Amino acid sequence: MRDNVGFPTLAATMDDLTRRGFTEHFIPDNGDLRAANSGKILRPEQVMISEYYRFEGASDPDDMAILYALETFGGLRGTLSDAFGVYTDPRVGAFMRAVALRTREEPAGDSSVSAARL
Fold it and tell me: What tens digit of pLDDT does each residue of 34-43 get?
């Protein structure tokens, strides 16, 4: 997980990720992810977590979110966000539990996948 000290808000972090090539937006769709811009449907085994950020509300504990920077093995890069607590989307959690987390030892673009899971 990257430290979001330099990016105090979800919006600022999303802007940074977009500048770094994470331009697609992913949406849960019947157990898969749908790429909002391209319409591609992705299974968990086609997706890898490159980075993730957790945001905690300073004044409201319900104001918490997580932002995933995802890459597909086909080269598509984008983001998926979810809330914590009562506002969590169970479809996001179910999908993300099946997605591989790239370890620090794996360079970007490496086709190997870590066994680590969220």
Answer: 999 999 999 9
